[in-house]
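Could you please consider the sequence and fold appended to this message?
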Amino acid sequence: MSEEFIEAAQDVSKAKIVDSDAEQGDKAQVGEGPLGVDVGTCRIVISRKKGRAVATRSQLNAFFSVPYFKFTQDILEKNQVKYFVDGNSLVIIGDGAEKLSVIFNAEIRRPMQEGLLNALEIEGQKVIQKILENLIERPETLGESVCISVPAVPAGWEARLLYHEAILKNYFMSLGYRVKSITEGLAVILTELAENYFSGIGISFGGGMCNVCFSYLSMPVLTFSVPKAGDYIDRSVASVMNMLPTEVKLIKENELDFTIGPRNRVQNALHIFYDEMIYSVLTALSKEFSRSAKIPQVHEPIPIVLAGGTAMPKGFLSRFEKILAEFSFPVPVSGVRLASDPLTATVRGALIAAMSEETPFDAIT
């Protein structure tokens, strides 16, 4: 493990994060050089170094179709809503899709499901490419490095991951990028645990999956995922409350607070399914530890770092710690903390991997 690589990881981890959507509004302004890309079920996020800062842009990974009318198209143009024309439909993509779906009281559609391309959405691949077109450009130099995040899929999903990863890699290679990939849990470790020599457990609580990685001295030992995350919570609460998942998502993101008791039936249901998600992740981690024959003898306690949008509600960390106390693992845990910026931890880890010509993680995705 070179000191240069550790310093580069620390530099990205501690750098100021610049929201280019808010401050620049122009994709040509999002830094330059190697590119990190987090293709999440909920959002697509990109990152690049910009001076001493890390510049990011993101869009909701979703779409919403309405019948084509020239008048509607003009309104979308006037309001700078991202869309494309597909036959007799206007396909609204990104953040605008969620806003319009609430107005029309209809559910948005997702190009991805449980961390991978959604086989039920024929247009999913096209939608993701259109969203990426609004976030990035062709590299200034042919062969510029890009690293994309991929999930660690459960057993039996290998074919889905192979297809998903190949589609994304082929798209970036067609633009002229040199492509590598990294699992989401490992990306969190790159961003957050350089000072621990990348020893610890990184958990990304995303929209489609919870991705977990246990790494010791930079070597990933366990990498797996649980297909219960933000979308699962939204769908589950919606099904018992007779609501749309989009409605639940908005309540979850704007009202949920674990430091106080639930104030209504919807919040009570959110508490119930959040607990189930945390129990599922920690139970899976315990099982992975118990059946692995390659667990190193760890004498110094290691940290657990939590990241991802589903870990953002106030009080989530304390809720996780309370449930964690019910479990015991063969490695000592020093404590649990949230990533410095949970929403960008994965994409910054991908950026760290993209910035290095050769890292100890290149062969382990």
About this structure: The two ends are 18 Å apart (CA to CA). The longest strand covers residues 43-50. Residues 44 and 65 are 19 Å apart (CA to CA).
